[in-house]
Structure prediction request, 264 residues.
Amino acid sequence: MRIGIISDIHGNYTALRTVLESMGQVDTIWCLGDLVGYGPQPDECIETVATLPGLCIPGNHDWGVLERLDVDAFSRDARAILEWTQEILTPEHTQYLQSLPMTMKAFGAGFTLVHASPRNPMWEYLLDLFDAAECFQHFASRYCFVGHTHVPLIFRDAGGVVKAAIPEPGEAIRLNVRPTSDGESEGNWSRMIINPGSVGQPRDGDPRAAYMVLDIPDDATTPGWDWTANLTFYRVEYPVEETQALMRSLAFPTRLVSRLSMGL
Ligand code: ZN
Prediction:
């Protein structure tokens, strides 16, 4: 089974389309939230994700639009686009966002999907080892996929010692490897918190859209832990200037327009 994992689309439909084309054939999509906010085409993004087979959880911007979070807690630019999004979003798409459960388990109980962190699903920016170490206490599965920071990142809990790694584009890691009796290294057994990075507004200095693909063997039983999956990180160039031109035509804040080409 081939699973595409995406996060933080943020109304950037040009980036989303490019990612889905570049990903190729997948059986299902897991979306880690923030379909809207910052970007000029929230309806198109929701329409696309809602019609794909897969799972989707909401992010803080999705909840901001629904006023489940206080819009005053967002930055001025973010708030301006949230208010614009509230006005233009179709009732069906607002309803879709309302229907999303805050966290999900996927593939049996093998994976936890949450937008920000397992400890604080809507707000925590999980970027350092101390926070990550505490967050490993807040989910039961072996793997947790998060978004929110817009930075691809792997936290690995190897026997109580938490380490972080920044994945390179094209890099693959193996998940769910058999224990050392099979001659595999213990590190591969680690529990992990993994962030694919952002489709629509990357913030690691690389403006290319980010996503991951998880390959689970077709004969894997759910949630049998005696198989190996490959998780590959990808970056893909998309026509940033198309999204920027749309944003300018809608008089979006200049800062939000220019950050896309810098990956900030
Ligand atoms: Zn986001």
The pocket of zinc ion is lined by residues 8, 10, 34, 59, 61, 148, 150 (CB under 6 Å). The longest strand covers residues 229-236. The longest helix spans residues 76-88. Helices lie at 13-23, 42-51, 60-65, 76-88, 91-99, 129-135, 240-249, 254-262.
